[in-house]
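Hi there,

I know you've been waiting on this one. I reran it after we fixed the sequence typo, so this is the corrected version. Both the input and the resulting structure follow.
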Amino acid sequence: MNLTTCYPLAKRIVFFVGFGIEKDGHRGICGPEKRFLQTCQMFHSSSILPIVIYPYCGRLFADFQKLYQDRKIILVGYEPKGRWRYFYLLYRTLKTYSPHAIHCQGPHLFDLIASVLGKLMNVQTIITRPVNVSQDYLSRFKKVLYYSFDQIIARNARDLIAISNTHKAQWWDELAPLISSGHRKKVKVIYNGIFLNQFSRPADRIPAPPVIFTISAQLTPVKGHELLLCVVNQLKKDGYQFFINIMGDGPLRTDLETMCNALDIVSMVRFHGHVRCVSTILKNTHVVILPSFREGLSLALLEGMAMGCPLIASDVGASHELIENGKNGFLVKKKSKSDLYLAMKWFLDHPSTIQIMGNNSLEKVMKFDIYRMFDAYRRLYLTV
């Protein structure tokens, strides 16, 4: 039976998802698609009916399919082929289901398509921006192109949602030369959140030393895995014993494994691939690490905090809103081997500080409950 018939009074929201797909077949999971899944899991179809456009080969397709089978969402699967075919894909979905709004969280091309089609077809558009253009890892040409995209997006979208105050300030500054202050006032903040009740500090965590570091991220160049392995190699040469967990999948998997062999650090590094329940790895983790070249408001860092781990992360995106230097971890300069080396060395030299800093992480993470995020989006959807 058609769910739009079953729930005629529900707000129909199209979730246009285009993350996590790599051309060579290696797949990971990005924060935006994970947030979409979590949001859909919490909605009741009688009030808000999600219409999810998601690629067949995405890591989370089976999860969205389960929601479809449970009659919680309408699922529109697609093959990621020519980029501009997505224009027709969204057009066909809008014609079929007559939704009240489209919600898109990137990439920029998807945001552009959603805002333009929404304007043409009189469907309100909500854009959540996880990474701003100014701090994105882009060529000069792409930055100019994406700024022009943002000008169109900001004029046509109803709401522009930043995932932190840091991103709101960045987005406002980026838009300032492009559009009027009236359009810039569309920028609002809804912080990312996680299911805090699914994470708890283990009472029987393996004591340090040896210290166990964990990185949870797509295996792509911007996450800084190669930089991390270079630092691991240097620390090993300096006589330190420790271990690294690498959670996630992506196109760099083979290259990173080859790099570990070349540096002779295979015994110190373990690749876990895609892990559905990250707490199984985090419960035996002492320090969560994320040396990204770009970042939004990292769910991986929030999950580490919720498990009582101190953090080491590049000072990009909103990471500085999560980390107080020396209190619950360390912020390091982007692409700086020396900063990353010193931060990791601190925990190797002072393992007794891990528990103290981990306690501070637990205190800071309490305001990032996913139910706050969910309620903010629910109220937003009900107003369209």
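Quick highlight: The two ends are 26 Å apart (CA to CA).

Best,
R. S.
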